[in-house]
Amino acid sequence: MRGELGPDAVSTADATLGRYGEHTLPSPDNRPAAVLYPASTADVQRIVLAANRHKVQLFPISTGQNIGLGSKSPMCSGQIVVDLGRHMNKVLEVNETLGYCEVEPGVSFQSLYDELNKRGSRLMMSPTAGPPQGSLLGNALDKGGGGGAAADHFGSVCGMEVVLGSGDLIRTGDGSLEAAEHLNWHVSKYSFGPALDGLFTQSNYGIVTRAGIWLMLRPPHIEPFFFSAADDDDLDEVIELVRPLKQTNFVPTQIRVTNDLYLIAAAESNPEYAATGGRKQISDEARRALQHKHGLGAWNISGALFGASKQAVAPQIDRLRAHFTKSSKIRYIPPEEAQAVAPLDIARKNYLGMPSDGELRMLNWRPGGGTAWFLPGMPMNGQIAHQMQKHSREICRQHGLEYMVSNVCGPRFARGVHTLVFNRSDPDEAARADQCYRALAASYAERGVFVGRAPTMYQQFHQEQRMPGIVQACDAIKRALDPNGVIAPGKYGMR
């Protein structure tokens, strides 16, 4: 690779390998054998073809900012990290007329936001609440989401360029035509033949080197809104009130129903950690004191409305207030009050399309920098949601960890972003975090509820929860598209 790509495209420096091996999960770091920095699709093809010749395992990353899911670290020590983000980081096109962009894997939420602002674009993207330097494309391919109206990030992808594990190059959709230009590639999602795009989400069949992503026109005015409910047991009522707002699309953004500690942890550290040595979760008394300090409830509801102006949106806000306050348990948080609450300001920026790293500050809740994300779903049924949160709280309590969750709600389904924060330098606490994750996953699976994404160290565990037929089908596709198994063996449980 030094000969084909140049000496600067390869690093085996000790500090580099150590940095790329780091992650936040409750297991040892996975140190790669080397890191490669391709600058083009042709470079990626050269790397994959060489890996096939030498039977070397590759682990491609975009920017490696999926904190809590594996970061830059490969599936196992000794794999070669292919860092697409260092040089393949260009916004190749912004189409103002049709509302899409074409990006390489290294384009981050922040860099696209900056590019749109530089152009004075009328378009906006949907950021995550995660790192601003996270990859737009990498997040979409891992089925990540945001809080805005275009929150389904993979659903916004249209037309990919992919280097298969065999080294062959394909373009999906209308890009498959042998033509000098492709007018429909990033606007026509369902082209002739099977739609192959989904094969390259959460898989190790190929390396996506560019793709189109649909953007939305920025509304003249975006008005975030906030409500809170006082008690843990109020979730049933909250979900029942949120569902019709999404089923009628009265609220165009996703609606987040977030518990107290998920928000507070971005602004505080656990006040009882030193006294308990991290062996117990925070007491209810201390939790209520923190709620009072930050003006938050046990559950906190947020979303945004669109309109021509603040005045035009005011009647819709009034309707929302009347809708939610049908329950005496729910309180409206006025905008001026919400802006003074730092944890709520993170959500406000998200709805305005602004990248923010605020939520990641929750890693300071406990010392040691450990976090793992557990990402199940739930139907938008208040009684079921209430049962699930009670059971999850108890599992976290048994393992001495705090229950932190943000439910990202759509019309029929909510993704529960559970964040386990733990002291990774304490072996006992790390072991409890591992046990807690597995207990939560087993509990949800018993009810037929699966995760939407998974940390790298749990991907084989989750694959083994699936029916044999689907596992065999995934393995058959792997053998067909990557016959020598060179791309990320073990990713999502596929060898």
Automatic annotation (TrEMBL):
GO molecular function ontology, one term from the record: FAD binding
InterPro entries: Cytok_DH_C_sf (IPR016170), FAD-bd_PCMH (IPR016166), FAD-bd_PCMH-like_sf (IPR036318), FAD-bd_PCMH_sub1 (IPR016167), FAD-bd_PCMH_sub2 (IPR016169), FAD-linked_Oxase-like_C (IPR016164), Oxid_FAD_bind_N (IPR006094), Vanillyl_alc_oxidase_C-sub2 (IPR016171)
One GO-annotated biological process of the protein: lactate catabolic process
Domain of life: Bacteria
Keywords: FAD, Flavoprotein
FAD-binding PCMH-type domain segment(s): 28-218
Coiled-coil residue spans: none
PANTHER family per UniProt: ARYL-ALCOHOL OXIDASE VANILLYL-ALCOHOL OXIDASE (AFU_ORTHOLOGUE AFUA_3G09500)-RELATED, D-LACTATE DEHYDROGENASE
Name of the featured protein: FAD-binding oxidoreductase
